[in-house]
Structures are given as C-alpha cells and as structure tokens.
Amino acid sequence: MKQAAKGLALLAFAAASVKIAGNFGNVPVDDDVRCRLANALPSVASADSLDAEVLKGAALQRMALHSPPKLNLYCAR
What we know:
mainly alpha
C-alpha cells in the first residue's frame, strides 16, 4: 500500500506542478516552489486520500493560504 500512496503523491505533485506552471505562462517552476509543493502534499494527505486531483487541489490551496512561506527547514535556500 505504501507504493500506491507514493505513486498517488507523485501523480498529485506532477498535476499540481503543471497547474502552477500554467498560471505563470512560460516561466519555469523553480526549486523553491517545487519544495513548497513537496512539503504541502504530505500535510494535506490522509489515509482516505485516494484521489490525486483532490490531493492536488488541497496542496495548491494550502500553498496559496500559506504564502509566502515562513522559514522552512526542509527546503534549502
């Protein structure tokens, strides 16, 4: 089941990255944004999170509500 959850998280991450990139035209998504997204996904995931689109939406909402981020020890600056 862990592999399924990891795959679901990767699908949600990829979908959210595409959504973010689409909001900024041809500007590439930088490492800081990817890192914030990678931190947002597990914070919104739960045992019943079985839909990548739901995870994507929740992670994007969390990023929007908590932007700009405070010091994040998991992202190199």
